[in-house]
Amino acid sequence: MAYSRKDAKAFARENMRGIWAAALTPFAPDLSIDEKALRANLRHWFDDLGIDGVFMAGKQGEFWSLSLEERKRLMAISVEEAGKKSGTIMSCSDQNIDTVIELAKYAESIGATSVVVHAPVLSFLKAQDETLYEYYKYISEQVNIGIAMWSHPDSGYLMSPELCARIAELPNIVAIKYSVPREMYAKLTRMVGDKLIVSTASEEEWFDNIVELGWRLYLCSSPPYLLQTKYDRRMREYTDLAFAGEVEKARAVRNSLDPVRKALRGTQPKEKPPAHGKYWQQLLGQQGGEGRVRRPMLELTEAEKQAAREAFASCGLQLSASKSAAE
């Protein structure tokens, strides 16, 4: 790694900045990982879209359907494609703590920037703070790499700001993807200072979080590559304007993306986010494998694909130097 365990927080503050996107996993017709497609997407995101880092092998990537070796392979590919110019955060989330640690050690061995570990499902418990503190403490003691926590309703509970701040005292706990109501992550941001980078996945709240909370890291979901093209980098544009203090200009650019957001989210079936995201990638000219997913996820019907195509065609994204989707 490029840093020691005791320097993990300082390294994260310096290097975990900007827009980080969570990768979907493209599958070939036989449902094997399409490595060529993944590499093409990563190069496009880094080189054409200006994405600063990638979140690999997580929930967006359908990690539950991947073998341990497949997850490691995704990690290796992302490090290779990121090189020294972009960051990588590897999802090591799993209910089996030995798997979490094995993946974290592997990420460390290949030079990943950091790892993320989802708060586990805790069956039968009526309280969970001590369990979670010891969980993250144990993992942090096994590796040197920087660790991001991740609290999300999927776990069946939300980690309190007070618990997160306590865990943030550990030397290599560097960040949190805090998928909670805004008042909770705003409170945590005020509590932890420079001990912990706080972020969330909501692109719709990203602008406000830059301006009002001083955030400098979007960590992370699929909007950075689903709302943008090589010729229409409005998320990148409003982010950089907001970082530079050009708030009203940034707000205008942010608001101009509303038709794209409406088209993207308005055609996403409630049970099919991965398939829809991959199909939208395909419409953008990226490698989406026609929306193929592994079970238990469901693929889009032809009617659902048609609805996505129609919405995409009128959303106004610019697909080339002189052509928008609406044209």
How would you describe what is shown here?
The chain has 327 residues and is an alpha/beta fold. The chain has a domain at 5-227: Alpha-Beta Barrel (TIM Barrel), CATH 3.20.20.70. Helices cover 46% and strands 12% of the residues. It is built from 14 helices and eight strands. The chain has helices at 8-15, 35-48, 68-82, 97-109, 129-142, 161-167, 182-192, 203-213, 223-226, 234-243, 247-256, 258-266, 273-284, 302-313; strands at residues 18-22, 53-56, 87-91, 114-118, 146-151, 173-178, 197-199, 217-221. The protein has an eight-stranded parallel β-sheet. Strand 5, helix 6 (161-167) and strand 6 form a beta-alpha-beta unit. It is globular, with a radius of gyration of 19 Å.
Q: CATH top level of the domain at 5-227?
A: Alpha Beta
- Find the CATH topology of the domain at 5-227: TIM Barrel
* C-alpha-based Rg, rounded: 19 Å
> Secondary-structure element order, as H and E?
HEHEHEHEHEHEHEHEHHHHHH
Percentage of residues assigned to helices:
40-55%
What is the level-2 CATH architecture name of the domain at 5-227? Alpha-Beta Barrel
